[in-house]
Amino acid sequence: MTAETTMDRRKAGETIDSFHRGRFHLVQPLGRGHRAGMDAMLLAALVPDTNRAGTKVADLGAGAGAAGMAVAVRIPAAQVLLVERAPEMATFARRSLALPQNAAFADRLAVLEADVALTGRARVAAGLPSDVFDHVVMNPPFNNGADRRTPDALKAEAHAMSDGLFDAWIRTAGAILRPGGQLSLIARPESIGEIMAACGRRFGGLEITPVLPRAGENAVRILLTGIKQSRARLALRAPLVMHGEGSHAFLQEVDDLNNGRAFHARR
């Protein structure tokens, strides 16, 4: 991209950003809305590698499509549906898929403009049928609505949760996953109680990995995976530490996850 093109895009209130060391690119809003980063890359890393053709993945609340695209780039067998309610963000996702830099894999992704919280026939009519997906990934809004301070409506919708949000999103994941399919999500640690309650009998074999900035510091995120209809026990895994002491550089394991060179395998 030329400097002139970059400047024009910034004036238009958007950027094109590179992920996985240039393996895919994303059109994102600038100065408003949600901009994808490491959370989306760690979420994508929860989906295991597979060679099974036609593996179906749904990215709920996909935004511009970062997590779903990261899955598709790493797993050539994956067919990914990007589900996004906000029309403007869904448009960013479609434009991202239309970029020439993404031509090699864009035909394996589609964008569905729909509300993740829909239920029953309304959900099916919107394009989310029951028992068809092998994996569902989600990065739900995780800020308490009472803490919302931004006048940016697009950002507020992406970041601020409403009552029962986790239950609604996890209910939808349970409905659209096939039996034995995997739910993967990233959230703040304070949401763990609501998440586990929402998983209830829908998901078992829950594995929770705390994400720490540095060894000895408190977790800033949790990674959670669960299997539909499993009755396996909960596992609290060793923390994933992002940086070494006194450093802002990612440790090798995290850098590999962040750039699509590895995935965070279930135990």
UniProtKB/TrEMBL annotation:
Q: Which PROSITE patterns match?
A: N6_MTASE
- Matching InterPro entries: DNA_methylase_N6_adenine_CS, SAM-dependent_MTases_sf, Small_mtfrase_dom, tRNA_Adenine-N(6)_MTase
Supply the alphabetized keyword list.
Methyltransferase, S-adenosyl-L-methionine, Transferase
Look up keyword Transferase and say if it applies: yes
Q: Which GO terms describe its molecular function?
A: N-methyltransferase activity; nucleic acid binding; S-adenosylmethionine-dependent methyltransferase activity
- What range(s) does the Methyltransferase small domain occupy? 42-188
Please give the start and end residues of each transmembrane region. Answer: none
Which PANTHER family does the UniProt record give?
A: TRNA1(VAL) (ADENINE(37)-N6)-METHYLTRANSFERASE
Please identify the protein, giving its name as recorded.
Methyltransferase
